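A.,

Following up on our hallway conversation. Structure tokens first:
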């Protein structure tokens, strides 16, 4: 079926184009557009992500060198950096945000049964934010400090498949905890987060929605122990307690008992204190759930290293958000391809091979199922293997 198709076309054939056209129509993306459609823009930006292009000039030079293959890539118009820059500046970024969300929905269904390191049937999310520093004079719409600009990526990562189920882009001033107001809690799901998200009024809203949270306790937490449960100290557990909050405002915001688990990490010797509203899971499972939170930090590290979201092709808010959402959609698209073709290669290995073979005419499964360690000389054990 893919005989003779470019590798790039084989990857992008997994895009739901009918859904893409609906997103374009929803925000008037085709209004007064005679050439270089939103799909052309998306494919050019996706190509830039997959091949690690550094600038609009770099994208233009690379695609012009392969002008005879543009039609076979699905790009119907001539590519120039000024046209691509104008498209990124003026076409509504929500087109690509909505399209990325549709790809996320597909990927989450594909990875719904994927294990993530803890024997648990419920959905488990890790919530965190990452800051990308910018120049204030170039990006004045993203204030952070008096001499600095920044944007924050607030991400809710589904640990089954490491798929970002929710992503919010804000300026650097927005505090992490405010993003809890934007979430739609899923009953029965677990939300793993660090101490920056402790706001008992907001955590109580998760509790009322029948969701569970696991977080680190702050050192100044004021609480009274009501009951101590037996623990196996050989696992590193110190205590498993039912507590109630005692400080005036905390008790007003969260007036039901909480569970406090103290744990000593056997490898580092660090003592950790966890808070949760779940009283049914074993105490050690609570500690294991929090250990899985590092996946969202590795996700940020990985996506900054391997997708172009630290060097932006435009300076306006619309251009930056367009680039980020297309980068996320490309990440999810490659995850979809991996699952649909049942590929054994890691996501890192796939992107390294794809970056060098976009214009080849080799079937994807043949190209990506025969990768050996020697094929990826740049492979590092510190890289995140999100899809082993």
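Then the amino acids I'd put at each of the 388 positions:
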């Amino acid at each position: 079926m893919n005989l003779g198709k470019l590798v790039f076309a084989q990857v992008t054939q997994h895009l739901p184009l009918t859904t893409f056209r609906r997103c374009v129509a929803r925000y008037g993306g085709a209004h007064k557009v005679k050439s270089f459609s939103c799909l052309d823009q998306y494919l050019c930006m996706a190509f830039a992500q997959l091949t690690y292009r550094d600038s609009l000039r770099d994208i233009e030079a690379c695609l012009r060198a392969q002008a005879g293959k543009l039609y076979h890539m699905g790009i119907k118009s001539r590519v120039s950096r000024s046209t691509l820059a104008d498209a990124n500046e003026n076409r509504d970024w929500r087109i690509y945000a909505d399209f990325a969300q549709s790809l996320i929905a597909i990927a989450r269904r594909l990875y719904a049964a994927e294990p993530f390191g803890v024997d648990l049937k419920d959905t488990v999310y890790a919530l965190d934010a990452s800051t990308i520093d910018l120049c204030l004079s170039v990006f004045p719409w993203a204030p952070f400090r008096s001499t600095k600009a920044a944007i924050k990526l607030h991400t809710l990562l589904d640990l089954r498949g490491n798929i970002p189920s929710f992503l919010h882009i804000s300026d650097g001033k927005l505090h992490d905890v405010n993003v809890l107001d934007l979430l739609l809690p899923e009953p029965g799901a677990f939300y793993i987060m660090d101490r920056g998200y402790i706001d008992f009024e907001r955590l109580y809203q998760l509790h009322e929605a029948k969701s569970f949270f696991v977080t680190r306790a702050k050192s100044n937490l004021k609480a009274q122990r009501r009951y101590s449960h037996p623990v196996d100290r050989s696992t590193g557990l110190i205590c498993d307690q039912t507590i109630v909050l005692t400080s005036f405002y905390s008790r007003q915001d969260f007036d039901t008992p909480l569970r406090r688990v103290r744990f000593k990490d056997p490898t580092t010797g660090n003592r950790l204190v966890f808070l949760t509203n779940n009283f049914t899971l074993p105490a050690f499972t609570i500690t294991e759930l929090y250990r899985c939170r590092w996946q969202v930090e590795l996700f940020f590290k990985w996506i900054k290293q391997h997708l172009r979201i630290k060097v932006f092709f435009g300076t306006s808010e619309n251009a930056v958000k367009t680039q980020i959402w297309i980068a996320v959609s490309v990440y999810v698209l490659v995850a979809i391809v991996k699952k649909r073709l049942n590929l054994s290669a890691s996501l890192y290995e796939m992107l390294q091979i794809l970056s060098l073979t976009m214009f080849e005419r080799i079937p994807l499964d043949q190209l990506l199922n025969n990768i050996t360690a020697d094929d990826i000389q740049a492979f590092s054990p510190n890289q995140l293997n999100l899809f082993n």
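The mean pLDDT is 89. Curious whether your intuition agrees with the design.

B.
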